[in-house]
Amino acid sequence: MDSQTAVEKNGTEASLLEKKIHRRKFFKFSGVAVASAAFVASCDKNDDDNDGVNLGSGDVGILNYAYALEQLEAAFYTQVVLTPYSGISALETEYLRDIRDHEVAHREFFKAAISGVATPIPNLEVNFSSINFTNRDSVLGTAKAFEDLGVSAYNGAGKLLTSPVYLGLAGKIVSVEARHAAIIRDLITPGGTAFANAEVVNAMGLDVARTPPEVLAIAATFLKTKINASNLPTS
Amino acid sequence: MNLKNIITEIEKADPEVYERLDTRRNSMKQFAFAGKVLAAAAVPFAFGSMFKKAYGQTNADIVGVLNFALTLEYLESEFYKAAVTSTAAATASAADKAALTLIRDHEIAHVAFLRTAISGLAGTPVSFTAASFDFSGGNGSGTGPFATAFLDYKVLLAVAQTFEDTGVRAYKGQADKLIPNNDVLTAALQIHSVEARHAAKVRQMRRALAAPNLIPAGVTLQPWITLAQSGIDTGNAGANAAIQSSYAGEDVTTQAGANIVNIGGQTIAANEASEAFDEPLTMAQVLTIVDPFIK
Question: Is the Cβ–Cβ distance between B76 and B163 less than 8 Å?
Answer without folding.
Answer: yes
